[in-house]
Write a structure and sequence with these properties.
Order of helices and strands: EEEEEEEEEEE
Radius of gyration: 13 Å
Number of helices: 0
Strand content: over 45%
Helix content: under 10%
Distance between the termini: 39 Å
Number of strands: 11
Structural class: mainly beta
Length: 111
Amino acid sequence: QDDLVESGGGLVQPGGSLNLTCVASGFTFSRNAVRWFRRAAGKERELIAQIVNSDGTTYYADSVRGRFTISGNRVDTVYLQMTNLKPEDTALYSCNVLTYWGEGTQVTVSS
């Protein structure tokens, strides 16, 4: 069964770091863009980072630029390195490619 699975979320103090992983099962990313979204409680889903596998081009939302880094192996795994985390980064983080979505991994930033 084709699937996306995220991992790496957790509870971290403000200023801390987390590394999220998104792994495809049953298919590969090919040349498509892979995106990380997040949805905080009571808010709309937000696109925060994207990597285009054909050329490695990246995109970051203003809210995370300079703190988050997206990377991947261009085959079946994408990472999101998150540093200097803030309470407002608390959300469910999900990855997406084409019509595939993972269930997400929860990130909570709190002291």
